[in-house]
Amino acid sequence: MAGYFITGTDTDVGKTVVTSLLLSHFKNAGGSVFPYKPIQSGAILDDGKLQAPDVQMYQRVLPQLHTEKACTYLLTKASSPHLAAREENVTFDIDGILKNTANLEAQHDLVLVEGAGGVVVPIQDDYCMIDLMNDLKLPVILVGRAGLGTINHTVLSVMALKSAYIPIEGIILNATQTRDESIEKDNIEVIEQLTGIPVLGIIPRLENLDEALQNPQHFQSIFQQLNQTKEDMMR
Ligand SMILES: Nc1ncnc2c1ncn2[C@@H]1O[C@H](COP(=O)(O)OP(=O)(O)O)[C@@H](O)[C@H]1O
Ligand SMILES: [Mg+2]
Q1: Which ligand lies nearest the alpha carbon of 219?
Q2: 37 an active-site residue?
Q3: What's the domain range around 25?
């Protein structure tokens, strides 16, 4: 049984893109890999049915994905889960989410659980994403922006994770905007120095996402550093 929890320094930072690239990497390695987005806010009506946009991106790698298993709670308001749930009269069954994850882990070589927003995003009452990470007991992959502003956000997120004794597998920086090489290079050095956690690499700005998702070998140098490699998956 193996898995990772994919969190980020913020919303829109690239968690879903990184999760999808990881799916592609592990699929290419021959393993059975399954994505799980327990709570999706900002769900959209598509074909008369509520759909999770994050799951739709996973489907670009896994077209046969069982979408009901891949997402438990679909909320329409594009907000923090606690607010969307309150407005839509939803109560989360956290034990149910933990059980779903355990079942998926039992059925697949690797499960990738994607959080919502960042580390201290409330789910309900005083239970936050970081508490879910703690309960799931999965090592975390932290996605941050590659450019300006990321040192503060990334280091603070790592501090929060460390204070909860959550193991951090590595940090992946994602370049969604105009790039500045000297800033990116310095960000990697400073983040590693201040956190002691390896920055596995930078995902460049992807002009053609589908092409990138079909060619995981381009990101081999980043993902091969993850401990749960093909051999571990097949144990
Ligand atoms: N490396 C990248 N290159 C190009 N577009 C990206 C990249 N990373 C993310 N995006 C785009 O930015 C938006 C937010 O990314 P997403 O992965 O959905 O963030 P999150 O899951 O953290 O909210 C999406 O429209 C996505 O396609
Ligand atoms: Mg997402």
Answers
A1: 1
A2: yes
A3: 3-233
